[in-house]
Amino acid sequence: METNTAPVEKFSSKDLVTDQDVRWCPGCGDYSILKQAQTVIPDLGIPKENIVFISGIGCSSRFPYYMETYGMHSIHGRAAAFVSGLKATRPELSVWMISGDGDSLSIGGNHTIHILRRNFDVNILLFNNEIYGLTKGQYSPTSETGKVTKSTPMGSIDHPFNPLALCLGAGGTFIARSMDRDPKHLQNILRRAHAHKGTSLVEIYQNCNVFNDLAFEVFTDKSTKKNETLFMEHGQPLIFGENSDKGIKLDGFTPIIVDLTNGHSANDCWIHDEKDRVKSGILTRFFDNPKTPGHLPRPFGVFFVEDRPCYEDGLQKQVDDMTAKRGAGDLDALLRGKETWTVN
User: Fold this and answer.
1) Residues 6+ apart with CB under 8 A from 93
2) CA distances from 17 to 64, 66, 114 (A)
3) What does the alpha-carbon distance between residue 113 and residue 41 come to, in Å, rounded to a whole number?
4) Is 267 helix (H, G, I), strand (E, B) or coil?
5) What confidence tens digit (pLDDT) does each residue in 9-22 have?
6) Phi, psi (rounded to 5 degrees) for 90
7) Nearest to 262, CA basis, from 241, 279, 282
8) CB-based burial, 281-301: b 16+ in 10 Å, e otherwise
């Protein structure tokens, strides 16, 4: 494959705005996510014609209409298949998959698992609002137990998916979480996701103000955010709290909250290591109900990063090796085959 060394033509966030009316409910968290993507992408050094957004079905999946790039609004739960096929045949493209918790974790759960284990060099933005919004408010795979919706009038009896624990278990090589109401954090995570060579999955807490309003309020409201969220940085101690006065310490493999103003210091705290799969797995299990006394804070940031060969690179190597061995292929000859027969 030839490398294009021509300078990348500069463009701005305004150049990524399309002529389509944005059809999300007023106040939807999707507006913020769209804005952060349009803010970050012009600075990534990618030619605009090499950027592709592919989505499944759902409110989030209208995203490609609002990005002035190539894109596709595909099939419910099957965006990963389209993304995989495109990346396999056009590995030079920057491919972004847009999906929701219902799209990627229900009908598309199988496809999500396999794109993660194959490790295509793509970016998956998983909008999680813990509800089916487009179909008007049924419970989703991430809705909490007891959730009362149109499809669960007596409350859901399902145990919800923990998306990042699932993705880590599927072999994801970049696992992160951010939220729609923290623009700077989301922008930084999008940059990190793009920089990673492999499948980057970013779960984004996204408020559905019509069917599941304030589902993440405890993590976004100024009065509670500092005590309920844990913003992780590689190589730094896990500290949170209104005055950075609480920390997370490991007692064996059990995380406990310690008071940094009473007998403990930052030196006692767990140091975040993005490459530690075991500890990253523990962090994905910080999934307590915020209403539970003594619950752990919800982590945000990069949970896990691993360097592993990408699927499209291995595929291209097979093609190159076979071409070197047998020469360039001839499709007509292949279709004709090596054997003929006569029908009397």
Assistant:
1) 50, 51, 52, 86, 87
2) 11, 6, 32
3) 26
4) helix
5) 899 999 999 999 99
6) -130, 70
7) 241
8) bbbbebeeeeeeeeebbbbbb
Backbone CA torsion sign across 27, 29, 30, 33: positive
pTM of the model: 0.93
- The DSSP code for 203 is E
Contact 180, 204 (CB under 8 A): yes
The residues that bridge with 95 in the sheet, in sequence order, are 52
According to DSSP H, which parts of 158-216 are helical? 163-169, 183-195
Nearest to 208 by CA among 152, 102, 130, 291: 130
Amino acid present at 150: K
> Are the C-beta atoms of 197 and 121 separated by less than 8 Å?
yes
Residues near 283 by beta carbon (within 8 Å), at least 6 away in sequence: 232, 299, 303
Backbone angles phi and psi of 159, in degrees to 5: -85, 125
Residue 244, amino acid? S
CA gap 71, 34 in Å, rounded: 14
CA distance 150 to 152: 6
pLDDT digits (tens, 9 = 90+) for 39-88: 999 999 999 999 999 999 999 999 999 999 999 999 999 999 999 999 99
Cβ atoms of 64 and 96 closer than 8 Å: no
Distance CA 62, CA 79 (A): 12
Which residue bears the tokens 């920089």? 195
Burial class (CB in 10 A: 0-12, 13-18, 19+), 129: buried
Angle between helices 79-89 and 311-326 (to 10 degrees): 40
CA distances, 65 to each of 69, 73, 210 (Å): 9, 8, 22
CB 29 within 8 A of CB 70: no
Dihedral over Cα of 137, 138, 141, 144: its sign: positive
The domains of the chain, with CATH numbers, are: 18-215 (3.40.50.970)
Q: What is the mean pLDDT of residues 189-207?
A: 98
Given the structure tokens 């209104």, which residue do they identify? 242
User: d(Cα 153, Cα 164) in Å, to the nearest integer?
Assistant: 28
